[in-house]
Design the sequence.
């Protein structure tokens, strides 16, 4: 989500840092900052909003001759998007930038505060620099101090530190989020969280592995893992900036489908404990006063809401109603202050959802936003917000935003169930274990993607698609059909499998393509019977299931999972990839489908 750059050399540091951050704008951010160390003095600048605000702040700053610098664009996860919370963060004589989430920052912070160390920001990042300087102030040698600091951190991180104690060195560490080291024949050294900032500057790069850390100066790079020094193997840097932003994928949508495993980890990080859910945003909230949940959303977010209704009623034991925001606004709804009103929006600017939220606020209801963009209109208006942490999504057809919304709502259902006492400890423990397993489920297997690519050529015609499923797989069928409609322009409908016999089965023939979601753990036999009814009417069947289905014309085998939500996310991946590959074969612009916008700010 966030972006990182670093530089060692004689050229203008500010130019590289600002240009590098500009290349990372596609990742999304709400604030930015740089710090430059030259002749044992550090100059730091931070600004909220767009990079031009930071550029204006630094317009009179120059940094020629030898020096080092670090820069950062921040997408808020801990604390609001303010200048104080923006990176770099500082101690007495050192600065840090950090991507990711430090899961154990609270215990580190409490320990440091107990020793009299003061904190300025609300972020998890600030603990890194104070812990590093604490070791230095105790007389620990600088490289050991950095090594010990990194060893304390749990979670995902790409870290850069500069300090007056080592004015020619950038300290770095990487785990679970990307970090790249680059060099050129002029003796310059570079660091970045993606290729694109380095193109035109570095000629050779090293893609750091998880758990690697070290320090970089103008002479060399020292790289370690688990205390052992590592060999360094440089690769030539590619030169296409757009390709670099897409990180080798054909489309941003494809990249975002593949990113779902890593962003799911970010969504869960710090929130999923050994056998419980921690949602700091809801501390002090009295769920004893809530008798019902009402959720308003549009499009893909509406499908996430429909899925969550099964989870809230099943796990939280609380009545849940789902409303399409554009319809809710004009139905003269009866609103009760004992109902928790939840709105879901990727952008936080969806006009219909925003207006529905205003109605709820005016009626005195307690409001909660599930959103991806901090400081958006919906986030500012709601009483409280849980951020999904999906990062920027450039593809108009939502993928990773949907996945992170579902994960967030699943966590919320467990949190409420625990607080209301409606969820026993063993079930909670089992659900938390299943949640923690989802990032591995979301890993795309090359062999499966290739099968879907080859199979897609058979689904370019016909008079329509039915996506069918039961229970939580009914909203997934709706979402699968929506993805296909959005980017292929083919007609598709999602339908409850058990409802096909009540009318839609009249459409069944060989030119009706049925995408059947047939999970092991949820009403498999019932769904199978519904699919058999369609097969008997000569519909073309694509079965997605862990069990082979003898009547299927095509079959995509899923893995045997123990939890329905694991099957949900695996089938979600398949429907996303199927829509993508059909649209590609039809020659469509996958990232920018016709007539659609990423943020729908009109009624």
Sequence:
């Amino acid at each position: 989500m966030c972006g990182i750059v670093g530089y060692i050399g004689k050229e203008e540091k500010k130019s590289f840092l600002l240009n590098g951050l500009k290349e990372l704008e596609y990742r999304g951010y709400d604030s930015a900052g740089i710090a430059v160390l030259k002749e044992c003095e550090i100059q730091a600048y931070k600004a909220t909003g767009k990079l031009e605000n930071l550029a204006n702040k630094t317009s009179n700053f120059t940094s020629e001759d030898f020096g080092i610098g670090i820069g950062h664009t921040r997408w808020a996860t801990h604390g609001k998007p303010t200048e104080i919370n923006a990176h770099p963060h500082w101690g007495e004589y050192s600065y840090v930038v950090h991507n990711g989430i430090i899961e154990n920052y609270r215990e580190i912070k409490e320990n440091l505060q107990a020793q009299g160390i003061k904190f300025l920001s609300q972020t998890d990042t600030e603990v890194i620099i104070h812990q590093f300087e604490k070791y230095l102030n105790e007389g620990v040698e600088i490289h050991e101090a950095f090594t010990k600091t990194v060893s304390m951190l749990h979670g995902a991180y790409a870290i850069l530190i500069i300090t007056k104690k080592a004015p020619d060195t950038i300290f770095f560490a990487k785990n679970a989020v990307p970090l790249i080291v680059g060099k050129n024949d002029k003796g310059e050294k570079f660091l970045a969280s993606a290729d694109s900032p380095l193109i035109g500057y570095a000629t050779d790069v090293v893609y750091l592995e998880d758990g690697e850390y070290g320090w970089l100066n103008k002479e060399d790079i020292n790289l370690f893992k688990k205390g052992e020094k590592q060999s360094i193997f440089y690769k030539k840097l590619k030169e296409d900036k757009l390709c670099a932003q897409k990180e080798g994928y054909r489309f941003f949508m494809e990249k975002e489908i593949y990113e779902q495993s890593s962003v799911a980890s970010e969504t869960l990080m710090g929130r999923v404990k050994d056998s419980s859910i921690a949602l700091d945003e809801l501390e002090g909230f009295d769920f004893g006063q809530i008798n019902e949940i009402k959720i308003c959303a549009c499009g893909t977010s509406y499908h996430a809401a429909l899925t969550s209704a099964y989870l809230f009623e099943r796990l939280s034991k609380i009545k849940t109603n789902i409303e399409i925001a554009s319809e809710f606004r004009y139905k003269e709804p009866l609103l009760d202050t004992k109902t928790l009103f939840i709105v879901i929006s990727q952008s936080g600017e969806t006009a219909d959802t925003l207006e529905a939220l205003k109605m709820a606020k005016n009626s005195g209801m307690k409001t909660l936003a599930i959103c991806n963009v901090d400081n958006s209109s919906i986030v500012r208006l709601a009483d409280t917000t849980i951020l999904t942490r999906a990062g920027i999504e450039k593809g108009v057809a939502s993928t990773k935003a949907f996945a992170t919304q579902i994960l967030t709502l699943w966590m919320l259902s467990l949190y409420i169930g625990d607080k209301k006492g409606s969820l026993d400890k063993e079930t909670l423990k089992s659900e938390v274990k299943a949640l923690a397993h989802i990032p591995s489920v979301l890993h795309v297997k090359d062999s499966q993607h290739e099968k879907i690519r080859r199979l897609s050529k058979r689904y370019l015609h016909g008079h329509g698609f039915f996506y069918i499923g039961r229970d939580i797989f009914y909203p997934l069928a709706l979402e699968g059909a929506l993805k296909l409609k959005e980017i292929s322009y083919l007609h598709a409908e999602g339908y409850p499998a058990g409802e096909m016999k009540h009318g839609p089965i009249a459409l069944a023939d060989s030119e009706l393509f049925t995408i059947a979601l047939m999970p092991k753990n949820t009403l498999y036999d019932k769904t199978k019977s519904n699919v058999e009814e369609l097969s008997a009417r000569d519909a073309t069947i694509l079965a997605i299931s862990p069990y082979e289905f003898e009547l299927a014309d095509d079959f995509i085998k899923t893995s045997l999972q123990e939890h329905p939500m694991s099957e949900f996310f695996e089938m979600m991946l398949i429907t996303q990839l199927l829509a993508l590959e059909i649209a590609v074969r039809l020659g469509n612009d996958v990232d920018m489908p016709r007539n659609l916008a990423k943020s729908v700010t009109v009624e």
